[in-house]
Amino acid sequence: MTWHLIYTKPRKESLALQKLSEQGLMGYLPMQPIEIIRWGQRQVIQEPIFMRYLFIKADDYFFNALACDSIAPGSESSSADRGKQYAGG
Fold it and tell me: In Å, how far are 14, 33, 55, 64 from 76, measured between CA atoms?
């Protein structure tokens, strides 16, 4: 099993991680605390460190067959193609 980088739909990282966990995959979504001001009060919320990305550990065969509504189109391509596609290459 290897780690894969998943490109998600905007603001759907947590939902994608939840759906992938329901399919039996181990995932990792690094979060960071962010201080914001809402309605005149300071609040600390958790946001992903890498917006629109999360990590999963899966077999290559299972990863290529993966289906989840929160994953952006193209995430199911091969690892080499995915790196080129989202790195701007």
Answer: 18, 30, 13, 5
Specify the pLDDT at position 12.
92
Domain that holds residue 32: 2-81
Give phi and psi for 22, each to the nearest 5. -65, -25
The answer to whether 10 and 52 have CB atoms below 8 angstroms apart is yes
User: What CA–CA distance (Å, rounded) separates 41 from 45?
Assistant: 13
Q: What is the pLDDT of residues 13-25, one digit of tens each?
A: 999 999 888 888 8
pLDDT digits (tens, 9 = 90+) for 25-53: 899 999 999 999 999 999 999 999 999 99
Domain assignment of residue 88, yes or no: no
The DSSP H or E segment spanning 19 is helix 13-22
Give domain status of residue 89, yes or no: no
